[in-house]
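If you are new to this repository, start here. Below is one unmodified record pulled from the training split, so you can see the exact layout before writing a loader.
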Amino acid sequence: MEFLANGGSHIEKMIKKALSEGKKQVKITGDWLIERTVRIPSDFTLILEDCHLRMADYTFCNMFVNENCRTEKGKTINGTDRNIKIIGLGRAILDGGEYNGLSEKNSEKDGRPHICVNNLILFTNVDGFEIKDLHLRNQRWWAMNFIYCRHGKIKDIDFCANDTAILPDGKRVHGLRENAECLVNNADGIDLRVGCHDIMIENITGFTQDDSVACTALYGKMEKDFAVEGLSTDLYNITIRNVNTATMHGNVRLLNEGGTKLYNILVDGVFDSSKDSPNLHNGWRAWRTLCIGSETPYGERHSTKDETYNITIKNIYSRAHSAVVVDGCVAHLNLDNINGFDGCENILLNRGDID
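And here is the target side for that same chain:
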């Protein structure tokens, strides 16, 4: 496939032209290499129709961000971007392309940028958004990352992460496996971080190297860098429906630590398709279909029951080693119709404290 160069500049020019004509949307077609980040303004819809957008080689930038992302204005209430949509029509592909070597281990070292430049979509401080009908391929880290975002919909998203394994002798092969390094580590699908609330995620398919959908209210350096003055760090009022994915680790992850809160979460319908996935070698099965908490703390301490509560998990169909794993304190956890089959060893692996 032959890609046209300078797709980022091309899309930016189309957005500016539309705005100058008083229009609130633009349609992108064709196959383009993205050499620079495209900023999407408030009250704007980007339609991607039968197009393939691929990150150019050796780039260290996001494909799409909201207009005020990474600005001082974007760290204020007045800098909130609103009502942004990215809509796919036909077969719309966002592709990370060749891996650029930036990882969590070398992030911000020796002149490198922070790993979050590898998100294909990074939204920070956005109120009102919709992302749907997209195919995301070869993400270089998490495919989508949302920080301090609210009132949003993410639906009908299909993933295919890089499945290159590095064997002990250095040979690279397709099909991730035990006792081999992953070329691209922590290649999540969708991550909601601190400050996210009132978001619906549904109809998620495909293969992610790590968690397919993660609600992780951790207040680390990235979250501090994007902190919005006056907004809470709580992650709440989240609905996740119909996740049917293959992964090495887990389909859905819920986690908060160090004083952040995670509550009012509904997960309804998760099917683990990891076994016999073409991206996983020799019948690899995921470790868990859904996990709450973490056995090893990420921050200063685990969460308490007044920080993690009102979690409803239902209609889980797991081939993983464990269907549901609890590694923390949870108040008002409701489990319904949790199923293990095809070798699932544990319906509920409770290593935490549940009410």
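Two things worth knowing about this chain: The mean pLDDT is 96. Helices lie at 7-20, 221-225.
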